[in-house]
Amino acid sequence: MKTLKISSFSEYEKQYEFSVSNPELFWDGVASTFLWKKKWDKTLTWNFEEPKVRWFEGATLNITENIFERNLPLKKDQLALIWEANDPSQTNRTYTFEELHHSVNQCANGLKALGITKGDRVCIYLPMVPELTIAVLACARIGAVHSVVFAGFSATSLSDRINDADAKLVITSDGLNRGTKQMSLKELVDEAISTTTSIEKVLVLKVTNEECPITESRDIWWHELIQNQSIICPAEVMNSEDNLFILYTSGSTGKPKGVVHTCGGYMVYTAYTFMNVYQYEDGDIHWCTADIGWITGHSYIVYGPLLCGATTVMFEGIPTYPEASRFWEIVEKYNVTQFLTAPTAIRSIMAFGEEPTQKHDLSSLKIIGTVGEPINEEAWHWYQDNIGKGTCPVVDNWWQTETGGIMISGIGGISPQKPTFAGYPLPGIQPVLLNQEGEEIKENEQEGYLCIKFPWPSMIRTTYGNHERCKEAYFSQYPGYYFTGDGAKRDTDGMYRIIGRIDDVINVSGHRFGTAEIENAINQNELIIESAVVGYPHPIKGQSIYAFVVCEHVPNDLNEARKAILLTVTDEIGKIALPEKIQFVSGLPKTRSGKIMRRILRKIAEGELDNLGDVSTLLDPSVVEDIVTNRL
Ligand code: WTA
Whose CA is nearest to atom 1 of ligand 1? Predict the structure, then answer.
């Protein structure tokens, strides 16, 4: 790949300056390194009012041709994908670029045989197995829009996402392996689609080989569908602004939104950021421990690395199975050169001490990354000292599902690093900090609301099926800006530190949940009249969920009632959203207009009891006393 790789800090400064003064020319240059079937007529059209953002309009391409056809001449026999099973004794699976190309084409032809065509939505609900990557790329090959749903979500969440996207097909498996556990998935899918109308077929992959229910007229085995498919599948011609995928994420209101990303801009930006942040060189082995059910997996396991011709590692299991040294065993086994994980994983491994990190040779590592939530200073140092052996640069990648790719981050070994600071914006990214009044804060050493004032190629285009929601959630708080929902601080050198969400979003172990989403789930339980949830600091998960619940009658057995509420949340969202604490309260602190004063609940959950602020405006100030007295 002809590159625009940044190789020194002064070059970064030059590229950055150029990308701000001449954004269109800058991105023209980056985009021209890709394979387009037809070049664009116009680089960028935009306004943040509607909002309307179009990159590389008039161009046609297929993102999988940029992974395969563009890389194959030089990389046919190089590994594209290495898959490590949950069980370390199970043989790994590897695919060269040519093998992966053939598998993707076979799957793409299989999807066509099921009647899937360009523009159809395909829901993918699979564990971390190679077929997940294959299915994603097969959709892209034929122009179907993939909507990957993390396999930890419940049947209800899956059903909501299928309905919202009006998906025609679900791709799933009999079950999944996770540490010592096996879980079935197919039953959840059957339950989910009992409340959907759009699904015509279910494609089922054997992963655990457990018995699972099959409906003959509707369900098809993956291995039967794929076995006689051709390894040749011409790539569908896509417009730059055609939808590539939908990925659901939580905001501060209502149900999760389907964030829409499009073909051209997403391709250009994920490849560019991967190449630079991770300073990719031929022969590098990149391992990102995220799940492909989240944006990090989409952009930095699948698309970014494969577009750049890198070898990408996919891991089915968890960091601590069978031992706390599992990550490092894998790093050593495959000579991983770039490693990316989340602060929550670092903290959970830290809890086992240094010994597990010393059992394996980590000298192959060149750059280590952290993503998904703010990293505390202690974890940052532990990571650099024990994993990076004091010499690997640590890159802290700040970005979001909506941004498609990394926005503010160190560039491995090139830009200065400072613990807990994500660093400088990448070329093309124009962040600003706004004050309460929505004015740009020009001085450094200040905190403000983090917004972005100019478009970049992989930014959210819309929320699927409801453009108004996109406008409301991201473009209406501060007209003219993209609003991130995060608070940040800029230091004297202009480096950014992300402080955390300033809206009603809780980040638990790097997973985003809206407070309203969790409250709606809790309220489904018949015991509950109303509830309010807030986040509070947790030493490993970053944040944990504290739920205040009001019941008609206080249950006799509080523990049983708690269990019932947890079960409801598991059914409605999934185990990943379980509250750590559930307090039964007589009432919630509300203003006279009926608004819940979350600020007070947050302080109580955090234990800041001396500093609850003014409670006199509450409808019934006595509830606060009651909550404080019975605080968990
Ligand atoms: C948070 C994950 C601090 C932030 C890529 C953001 C971070 C939300 C960082 C997006 C980081 C992500 N430092 N906070 N390096 N990365 N966040 O959509 O609050 O799952 O708004 O995307 O995670 O979460 P999402």
Answer: 373
Ligand 1 and 488: CB distance under 6 A: no
Looking up tokens 């498919």 gives 229
* Of 300, 394, 399, best ligand 1 pocket probe by most atoms within 8 Å of the beta carbon: 399
Local structure of residue 425 (DSSP, 8 states) = B
- Ligand 1: which atom is nearest the Cα of residue 396? 15
pLDDT along the chain (632 residues), means of 10: 80 97 97 98 98 98 98 98 97 98 98 98 98 99 98 97 98 97 97 97 98 97 97 98 98 90 98 98 98 98 98 97 97 98 96 96 98 96 98 98 98 96 98 96 94 98 97 97 98 96 94 95 96 96 97 93 97 96 96 90 94 86 93 94
Report CA torsion sign: 242, 406, 277, 408. positive
Q: Atom 10, ligand 1: which residue's CA is nearest?
A: 400
Q: Residue 400 falls within a domain, yes or no?
A: no
Give a yes or no: residue 552 inside a domain: yes
**Ligand 1 atom index nearest CA of 501:** 19
Instruction: Give the end of a domain, one of 207, 236, 265.
Output: 236
Q: What is the distance between the alpha carbons of residues 141 and 124, in angstroms, rounded to a whole number? A: 15
**Structural domain includes residue 188:** yes
Distance CA 28, CA 23 (A): 8
Residue-number span of the structural domain to which 588 is assigned? 507-629
Residue 159 near ligand 1, beta carbon < 6 Å: no
Q: How far is CA 397 from CA 79, 138, 227, 407, in A?
A: 26, 28, 40, 7
* DSSP-derived secondary structure letter, 536: E
CATH of the domain at 107: 3.40.50.12780
Number of domains in the chain: 2
| β-strand partners of 396 | 370
Q: Give the CATH number, domain containing residue 534.
A: 3.30.300.30
pLDDT at position 616 is 84
In angstroms, what is the span from residue 528 Cα to ligand 1's centroid?
32
The pLDDT score that the predictor gives to residue 3 is 60
Task: Check pocket membership of 306 for ligand 1, CB cut-off 6 A.
Answer: no
- Domain assignment of residue 591, yes or no: yes
58 Ramachandran zone, left/alpha/beta (phi>0; psi -120 to 50): left
At a CB cut-off of 8 Å and minimum separation 6, what does 512 contact?
A: 249, 250, 401, 505, 506
Measured from the Cβ of residue 33, the count of other Cβ atoms closer than 10 Å reads 16
CA of 402 to the centre of ligand 1 (A): 10
Question: Which parts of 21-78 are beta strand (E)?
Answer: 42-47, 52-57, 60-61
DSSP letters for 324-359: TTHHHHHHHHHT-SEEEE-HHHHHHHHTT-SHHHHT
Distance CA 352, CA 356 (A): 7
pLDDT at position 305 is: 98
